């Protein structure tokens, strides 16, 4: 995997790459949007804890496929208020701790989700590459 961060455009706002490319074939893994919902059905209060749970859910899906955060090519995330941006970023940065080539990343502010208590949703695209 290679990061694509051209010097001819502004640098990324945070810990992500403007683009990512891969070489060679590999198995593609996509998650559905994951909400901040714990296995016991509890929804944590606050955007930080919900974002952490979203990434934990995504990590579990990746692990099921034998992958981890270093295999993520793209993160798409959604929050219900601009005020949740810093908490989401903190959780994303925790998830990417130690990752050398950062994935592409998009954050969108939306009007809401299926239930009003949900504040954050995260989906990932990852690729298993030949090792």
Automatic annotation (TrEMBL):
InterPro entries assigned: RutC-like_sf, YjgF/YER057c/UK114
Transmembrane segments: none
Pfam family, one: Ribonuc_L-PSP
Leader sequence segment: none
PANTHER family, sorted: BLR7761 PROTEIN, YJGH FAMILY PROTEIN
Protein name listed in UniProt: Enamine deaminase RidA (YjgF/YER057c/UK114 family)
Annotated source species: Paracoccus lutimaris
